[in-house]
Amino acid sequence: MGSARGAGCRLYIIYHWANVLALLQYMRNLQTLRIDVHGGVVEGHRHFVISHLLVSLHVRAGGAHYMLFDWITLPRLHDLSVYEIDSEWPQSQFISFLERSSPPLQSFSLGIPYRTGDVWDDNVIQILQHIPSLRSLCLVYNYCEVDAGSFLEQLSPRRLDHGTVDCLIPKLNSISIQLGHQLRIPNYEALKNMVLSRCSLAHNTNAGDNISSPIERIWKVEVVCYYEPEWI
Predict the structure, then answer these.
(1) Domain boundaries, the chain
(2) Could you give the CA distance from residue 224 to residue 226 in angstroms, rounded to a whole number?
(3) Measured on CA atoms in the order 42, 43, 44, 48, is the torsion positive or negative?
(4) Which residues in 198-226 are b (16+ Cβ under 10 Å) and which e?
(5) Can you tell me the distance from the alpha carbon of 218 to that of 197, in angstroms, rounded to the nearest whole number?
């Protein structure tokens, strides 16, 4: 387990759910936590949920270990990253965590599982619907196929039948797509259209328009590939 000290301290690696929950319970001044959860049991915590004023949380786990989100409420969370997601990802529990916490998230990073497709596009959209304050989004594709065309289309503003303009995460101004393999490519056409539509609407609307929420202009688009050694 990493060391921590002083007010507003940071702690980096913990291995079991029980350790994470105990830490949050007894270190009320902790602000930044980076954890790699490999196992553990939370039997002693089944009857209550820990509320903590954590600001930044980065979790690397996998499978059922993400059930950690069942036991925490983080109402001041600004920065959240979750990685090593697989088919056991507890989508409904994670959504419940977001609903319970209502955090003012500004930055969110999500590792997309190996097998992806429309189901995961829908999962990501469902998650983003619960964090409208988001400004920076990072999607990490390590080994899976990449397209995300339908997801990127959902990020584009759309005009509803009664004239209202609706937009998923309207405050978004930075998007990053990270690839673990140079042979995987995103849908660049969908990405371009999304950015142009958001920038155009941000430029051409004013306070009197029938718009559900002011739309920010996209200022940063990043596509990064981390080459595997055998391909260099």
Answers:
(1) 39-231
(2) 7
(3) positive
(4) beebbeeeeeeeebeeebbebeeeeeebe
(5) 10
Identify the CA nearest to 111 among candidates 132, 78, 83: 83
Alpha helices of the chain — where are they, by DSSP H? 17-26, 91-101, 118-128, 149-155, 188-204
Tens of pLDDT along 2-49?
Answer: 444 444 566 665 667 677 788 888 888 889 988 887 665 555 545 567
Q: At a CB cut-off of 8 Å and minimum separation 6, what does 153 contact?
A: 190, 193, 194
CA 10 to chain centre: 20
Beta-ladder partners of 174: 136, 220
> Distances in Å between the alpha carbon of 232 and those of 58, 197, 225, 226?
29, 36, 12, 10
Q: What is the pLDDT of residue 128?
A: 93
Residue pair 25/50 in contact by the 8 Å Cβ criterion: yes
- Residue 67 tokens read as 């059930």
- CA quadruple 149, 63, 59, 29: dihedral sign: positive
Q: Tell me how crowded residue 84 is: count the other CB atoms within 10 A of its CB.
A: 18
Q: Quick check: 116 and 88 in contact, CB under 8 A?
A: no
Q: What b-and-e string marks burial along 32-61, b requiring 16 or more CB atoms within 10 Å of the CB?
A: bbbbbbeeeeeeebeeeeeebebbbbbbbb
pTM of the model: 0.82
Q: Classify residue 69 by its DSSP letter.
A: G
The pLDDT tens digits for 50-65 are 899 999 999 987 656 6
CA–CA distance from 103 to each of 9, 98, 172 (Å)?
20, 7, 16
